[in-house]
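Sample A.
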Amino acid sequence: MLKKFFAILSVATVIGTASPIMSEAATYHTKAISVAKTNLGVPYKWGGITPSGFDCSGLVKYSYSKAGKTLPRTAAEMYGKGTRVSSLAMGDLMFYAPNKASRPTHVSIYMGSGKMIQSASSYGVSIASTNNTYWKPRYIGAKRI
C-alpha cells in the first residue's frame, strides 16, 4: 500500500514539474491567438501596430506582445527568429513571399485546423484557410516562437 502511494506521488510530481513548461507555451500561443481574434474586422493599415489599424506584422507583434513575447517589427525580421517547423502547431508564425526566392513580406498566426489569422490589405484582420488559393503558393515556411 505504501509503495503504491509513493509511486502515485512520484508520477504526480513528474507531471506537476513538466506541466508548467508545457502550459506556458500553450498559454502564450493561445493568448496571442485570442488577442488577434479580438481584433477581427480591424481595418488594414500599412505600418499599423494598434487596434485602430494593423498591417500583417503589426497584428502579430501586437498579439504576441499582449501574450508576453517580444517580436521584431517586420515579417522579414520575424522570419529570423524562432525555430523552423515543418508540422504546424497552434501559434506558429506562417510566412509568405511573392516568390520562393525572396524574403517574406507577409506573416500570419496559425490557429489550427487549417486556419490562420492575419491582417491582409483586402480584408483587414480576418481568418483564412491555409489552403487559400492566393496565399498557398506564396508560403515559404513557418517558425515556432
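Sample B, a different protein:
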Amino acid sequence: MRTLSALILVAVASALGVVYTKYRTRLLFAEVQRLEQALDAYEEEWGQLQLEQNTWAEHSRIERMARTRLGMVLPTRESTLYIKP
C-alpha cells in the first residue's frame, strides 16, 4: 500500500511538473514573440534613420546649404594657391 501511495504521489508530482513546464514554455514563447516584434520595429527604424542620414549628408545638399545659408562660393582658379611640399 505504501508503494502504491508513493507511486501515485510521484505521478501527481510529475504531472504537476509537466503542467508547470508547459505553462513556463508558453510564457517564454510569448516573451520571445514580443521581443522579436520589438527587434523588427527597431530594425525598421534603423533603416529609416540610415536613409535619412544619407539624405542629409548628400554632397549636393551640403553644397547648396553652404551657398544659401553661409554665402560660400567656390574659389576662382586665380585665387587658388598651390604650395609644393
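Observation for Sample B: The chain has one domain: 2-68.
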